Amino acid sequence: MTDVSSDWRMYVCGITPYDATHLGHAATYLNFDLINRYQKLRGATVHFSENITDIDDPLLERANRDGQEWKTLADDQIDLFARDMQGLRVLPPEHFVPVTETIPQLISALEALVAKGYTYKIDGDLYFKITPFLDSLPLALEDALKIFSERGGDPDRIGKENPLDPLLWLANRPGEPGWPSSLGHGRPGWHIECSVIALMTLVGEDYLSLHEKRAASLDLQGGGSDLIFPHHFMSAALGKALVGIDFASAYIHTGMVGLDGEKMSKSKGNLVFVSKLLAQGIDPMALRYALINSNFNEDRMWSKVILEDAEIKVANLRSTLSKVEVFTGSNFLNHLLLKYSHGLDTKGALEILEKWALANLLSEELAIEELSKLDIGEISNASPGEISRFIDSLFGLAL
């Protein structure tokens, strides 16, 4: 990771609250929690914002299917998500913003895009002209069209200037919520929501009139790898259209989580929910450990064996930290931090931590011998309290 300034701006795409938090969601938010913690340890003042897409087709469809008021469903799922994150000790963002609370700001942003000539209408629906930004398309056009269709886009709609043009404002449909505006009665599209919420919370409410000398509005935009296209591409284009500079300096995407060799998805019915695991009495620290013990940007599989292995490792750490004194090295904490900071290598850092814990459960002679192999400096006795606090600050593991 590069050096940080005193103010560091991170935006992570949040939930659409129509169902409980599954392990794929949890892995994503845990990894950005690790980045948040690391930046804080480095001395940065982290400004962290996350949206809640509490008005979207999946939410309305689920509410209609279950005969439930859409706002009630959203509120219930937002509360459940917050409890899940609290259980996993994810530090809450500075700004946790529902889309429905930002409608006036979204309308102002859309009006600005209209004034800049970036939009056109089809039957009352407002679209964004993506063509000026296609030089940064992250995949082949043919693949983009296919994925766009699969992830909420409408490339085949008659009248569009470019098949990839995203919807900005959806004209009101009978029986669906909407808001009055100069654009007509309706509701915002998906991509513009993140652009505006990120800018208004991390740059400032007056971002449209600012001319700050920055390379980009944000330091980091993050989410799952399924958001690379179209969502992050579109929100970045919209952000640049609004303020004239790049939306983010860096983009980080987490890998997907599968189950026992298969993709985890609602259609397969094999989603594993955080709330159900916690209700079954699974140790939340073992669950956290299992989910961060992998390379953040690689797809991974979940299984009962992985959880059981994490439970053993957490138990070993707790046994070590419960001792009156432990053996450690003069450079142990820095060694952990350096490993962790190299591409967010939590797996490598946890391996060092595991070896340290196991060594401390041996006899004094064997412990010193094993610890000397870890290149962690001069071995000596230490209080486990400092190490425990460091583990909590860096990994979020309260042991």
Concise account of the structure shown:
With 399 residues, the protein is of the alpha/beta class. The protein has 14 helices and 14 strands.
Overview of the molecule:
The protein is 45% helix and 17% strand. With 399 residues, the chain is an alpha/beta fold. It has two domains: 7-257, Rossmann fold; 303-395, Four Helix Bundle (Hemerythrin (Met), subunit A), CATH 1.20.120. A five-stranded parallel beta sheet has the order 3-2-1-8-9. Strands 4-5-6-7 form a four-stranded antiparallel beta sheet. Helix 4 crosses helix 6 (190-202), helix 10 (304-321) crosses helix 12 (346-360) and helix 12 (346-360) runs antiparallel to helix 13. The two termini are 27 Å apart.
How is this fold's topology laid out?
Blueprint: E1 7-12, H1 23-41, E2 45-52, H2 57-66, H3 70-87, E3 95-98, H4 103-115, E4 119-122, E5 125-128, H5 141-150, E6 167-171, E7 186-188, H6 190-202, E8 216-224, H7 228-243, E9 246-254, E10 257-259, E11 262-263, H8 274-279, H9 284-292, E12 300-302, H10 304-321, E13 326-329, H11 332-341, H12 346-360, H13 364-372, E14 379-382, H14 384-395
